[in-house]
Amino acid sequence: MTAQLPFPRADVENLTREEAARRSALLEVTSCRVEVDLRGAPAPGAATYPVQTSIDFSSVEVGASTFLDHLGASVESLVLNGETLDLSTHVGPARILLPRLQGENTVEIRSTSRYSRSGEGLHRFVDPVDEQVYLYTQYEPADSRRVFPVFEQPDLKTRFSFSIIGPQHWQLRSNSPAITRMPLEGAEAERAAGARSAAAQDGVAVGPLVRVEFAETPRMSSYITALLAGPYHHVEGHYRGGVPEGEQVEIPLSVLCRASLAEHFDADALLELTRRGLDFFHAEFAYPYPWGKYDQVFVPEYNLGAMENPGLVTFTEKYVFDTAATDAQYETRANTLMHEMAHMWFGDLVTMHWWDDLWLKESFADYMGSLAVDEATDWSTSWISFANGRKAWAYVQDQLPTTHPIVADIGDLEAADQNFDGITYAKGASVLKQLAAYAGREAFREAARRYFARHAFGNASLGDFLAVLEEVTGANMDDWARAWLQTAGVPVLSAELGSGLEPGLKPGEVLVREQGVDPATGESVSRPHKIHVGVHVLDPERQTLVLHAAQEVFLDPAAPEGLTPVPELSVPEDLPRLLLPNEDDLTYAKLSLDAESLAAVLSYPVADPLARATVWAALWSMVRDGELPARRFLAAVQQLGLDIEEIVVVQGLLRQSLAALERYTPVAERGTLQRDLAARLAAELTRRSGGDHQRATARALATLSRREGSQLELLEALLDGGAADHGISGLRIDEELRWAFLQALAAHGRVSLDQLDAELTAKTTARARIAHRLAAAARPDRRVKERAFGQALAGTDDAGQELSNDHLTATVEGFTVAGDPETAAVIERQSEAYFEALTEVWERMSQGQATRVVSGLYPGAQDLEVGAEPIEHPVALRTQAWLEANAEAPAALRRLLIEEQDQLLRGLRAQAAAQA
């Protein structure tokens, strides 16, 4: 009988939870050895590379069958336990069938894999500055199978041994340290000479080749293995430290970036942050760093902020600041560095069994990253950034119809890829911050320590973490976990003054009300909270709201009508005041400000920085909910927000202001409000001389000017060196701002393609190429827009070459820019073609690339006619029609459309409320 593939082609790539569970019950993987041959990588247009893989594993059932995951270009040979298997019947488009297993097995595969342009798998980038080739891998959640055949699931951990063949002058790195670095010899050397000769004919100097073998890793999951190759600039460092009252550990450190960025690379600052982080986590977790060396590499065209590959952490090279950066950008980088370092324990040392418990690593890393920045660095604004940024992301995500509990139901890999979202990261981290307050910081720390000690190099679940929490606190954590981790939706807290009609309460007594509905079930949900309730009153001399009193309160989920009195909290009369039911931002909840508090915060600044950030987050939620008209929010930003000291808050308010104008402002008001904001930003440039606030303002003005043209003459003057003529000093017009201004001018037809080309020729960098593509697609010409739209749907340029992830995003973003109503109409005419192409785009592109197209091209910025119903808007109706006609479409694709439709309707409802 001929062996058949176990699953049809349509299903094999998307591994399900049930399949993974069956495979992990059947197998134990002993070791995996992989050699990747990158000798051909420097050649122009290199597309593929050879891979050799050998895996030892055992099966609990003799005679059973299983499969390897593989998304490579081809398989050349397949040998299982010494038997050569027929490729035509054992190799499918995404899986390799392994039949007739023995108790102990060895499978050997020779295969060919493709270099990636999407950031998934082994990504290949050619630096436009010097034409050097750079390679790096990115696998989460399941893309190591794009590089080598593998049992691709987190609970089949094993020890990996990697080797790389590549140019001698390149940095060749993996998770573990190199143990040998040898020149190729014999026949291999002859093949290497042939490869060098071929490359030389193409004008590429390869030089001698070496094989680098790396030490065997400890047990780890496949998605955190990593490879790096290229002429990276590197700076070495060292760490010596250890856990409290434990032995000292020595850790080699290294930071790397592209050679053309070396002059901008602040390696010493990064190494110092790394040492501080290691000291912090050693003290926090009482478990020594388990992965030997600690390399951190900043890579081009990265899909993420960073990835926690043990021993070889990858970061977006946007964190190498080759243009002026604000303090908030440096703090964000420090937060990301600490987040990934926390993963060395949460996620890498102890890993979830399946992606349902993705939060077990991401929520913890998000919380611990902010905590480490707060306690181990010189930044004092970490929790302000968290309240203003991360929580804002969570509140948005948790109000979508696709929201889910922190512990999600992840049935397959496509769902896992979609669940790297604001709930898994930011809501989970917010809830952990509440847990640390609720259970106590020391108890939380001790629970983490026991968790690592008990499950090191293994897999764990929510139940395992709750078990150590219960041991430490002596409390049953089931109710807490059920309320916080296994329900969805945002709690709403409000503070009010009692009327005296409430049973047992005095007139004027402060009451805190908790409300919550799980959108998945429609049922009311009450959660336990430990909070501080604050009263801020106006200081007449400073004309600022200052903290008058605060009181710690436990909110009982069983409290009648959700009301909890705060009897010891006094509220002065006859002064503007703010009742803040989440002082110190300890819990996760939207705040509903009473009328007097709202009037106060729209008129006066709040003195305390964290309270201020919490209030602004509440105001933005009210805008999105249609409870606060966008015009009032914009007025408050201009009156109060631009003077806030913390630049991270100002940057957030500027982004929200632009979104308020685009999505939440009625069309009848938009033109005036846009011009008013543009004029205010222009005035702000003259009011400040240099510094973060001026730069953030310039960025916002450039973005606003893509669609609003009242300040274009100013942008032209700044590009031409005429800042002084407009009373502006200290503003550095570097590459970033030059292109931002050019993009705005291009959107209004104020610069030609020849001028954009000349700017790119004058300084050809990776940043410039991306910016040029966006500017070119932003031009107000029907043929330009149609060409950009076609390129985005195809994922290729005019020559048919695949667009990289960054270039695809730039094309999409440039297409959506409309500097005038005529161009907006041209863009709108592509809507039907967009809906017709969705299924084909999803099937043809990788999920990451398809997501960029589906979300980026969705026509979500729409206007509501006076008196019209949001649900009757043509785009909302067309989206609903597509969803009804495509009920069997991939769940991940449907989720994107449902979310985009909800964001559209939210904006239209806010417009309707403002028009009422």
From TrEMBL:
Keyword Hydrolase tagged: yes
Higher taxonomy: Bacteria, Bacillati, Actinomycetota, Actinomycetes, Micrococcales
Protein name: Aminopeptidase G
BP-aspect Gene Ontology terms: peptide catabolic process; proteolysis
Family per similarity comment: Belongs to the peptidase M1 family.
Peptidase M1 membrane alanine aminopeptidase domain mapped to chain residues: 271-484
Gene Ontology terms for molecular function: metalloaminopeptidase activity; peptide binding; zinc ion binding
Alphabetic keyword roster: Aminopeptidase, Hydrolase, Protease
Domain ERAP1-like C-terminal: 579-902
Highest taxon of the lineage: Bacteria
InterPro entries assigned to the protein according to its UniProt record, in alphabetical order: Aminopeptidase_N-like_N, Aminopeptidase_N-like_N_sf, ERAP1-like_C_dom, Pept_M1_aminopeptidase, Peptidase_M1_aminopeptidases, Peptidase_M1_dom, Peptidase_M4/M1_CTD_sf
Pfam families listed in its UniProt record: ERAP1_C, Peptidase_M1, Peptidase_M1_N
SUPFAM superfamilies named among the record's database cross-references: Leukotriene A4 hydrolase N-terminal domain (SSF63737), Metalloproteases ('zincins'), catalytic domain (SSF55486)
Residues in Aminopeptidase N-like N-terminal domain copies: 102-185
GO cellular component: cytoplasm; extracellular space; membrane
Keyword Hydrolase annotated: yes
